[in-house]
Structure to design on (224 residues):
């Protein structure tokens, strides 16, 4: 593909910054490409009632912050509180010269890094497990597929956590938008489990200081 002259200085700049031994298949942007916006955020689910999710976009991550992603289990706690979910559609529009790749880190040479981190607070008694899973899928502007990831905490555990999810599955291509961006769907599920008949309890949800449960998903910007 011919490279427009206006892009050459940017490419040369990226190339010079990389160590000489690095082989580059596709250059990544180190900053948020010009005119990139998070155009819309639509969500619903038991863990995200209206007005409780906020978002931000940087050169390396999409961050979602939840006020009421909070699950509980234990004597007297309704079963409906054992699980919380949220489905979020995020429309990201970028310049036609760029596309975004979910789960990649642009700080290296485009090496795949851990896709997602979650931060919050928990109290899990012995025997209680908590699983958080995140699915990613392009709904519009689809270049490549789907992927998902999860993590499980095993009680007894309590306090603040900052946890990386397992590496995203979904193959080498992962989730990639078309040039110019697209709509990314994020499907989150938080589930607490306790042994039958055990009178143990647990909860997992927002951080104490910020009152937010935070999900930070790596994004990288790849030249088209
Ligand atoms: C960014 O958006 C503005 C306003 O729509 C437009 O005039 C400008 O050409 C865009 N810049 C690039 C590099 O696409
Ligand atoms: C978590 O991820 C592993 C590995 O991809 C998968 O086998 C497992 O089914 C997932 N579990 C949940 C609860 O999503
Ligand atoms: C919690 O996780 C452990 C280890 O995987 C498993 O043995 C146990 O059955 C799980 N407990 C529940 C209640 O799911
Ligand atoms: C759970 O408790 C119920 C009622 O107390 C009892 O009938 C049942 O056998 C118990 N199940 C187990 C696995 O202990």
């Amino acid at each position: 593909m011919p490279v427009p002259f206006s892009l050459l200085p940017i490419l040369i700049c990226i190339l010079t910054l990389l160590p000489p031994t690095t082989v580059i298949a596709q250059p990544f942007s180190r900053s948020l490409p010009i005119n990139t916006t998070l155009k819309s955020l639509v969500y619903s689910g038991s863990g995200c009632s209206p007005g409780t999710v906020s978002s931000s976009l940087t050169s390396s991550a999409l961050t979602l912050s939840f006020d009421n992603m909070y699950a509980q289990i234990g004597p007297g706690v309704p079963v409906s509180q054992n699980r919380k979910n949220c489905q979020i559609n995020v429309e990201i529009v970028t310049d036609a010269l760029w596309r975004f790749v979910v789960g990649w880190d642009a700080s290296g040479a485009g090496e795949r890094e851990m896709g997602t981190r979650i931060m919050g607070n928990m109290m899990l008694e012995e025997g209680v497990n908590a699983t958080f899973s995140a699915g990613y899928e392009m709904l519009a502007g689809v270049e490549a597929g789907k992927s998902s990831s999860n993590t499980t905490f095993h009680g007894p555990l309590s306090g603040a956590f900052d946890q990386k999810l397992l590496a995203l599955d979904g193959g080498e291509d992962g989730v990639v938008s078309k040039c110019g961006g697209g709509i990314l769907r994020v499907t989150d599920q938080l589930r607490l489990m306790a042994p039958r008949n055990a009178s143990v309890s647990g909860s997992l949800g927002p951080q104490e200081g910020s009152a937010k449960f935070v999900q930070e998903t790596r994004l990288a910007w790849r030249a088209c």
Remarks:
- Confidence is low (pLDDT under 50) at residues 1-24.
- Helices lie at 8-17.
- The chain has one helix and 16 strands.
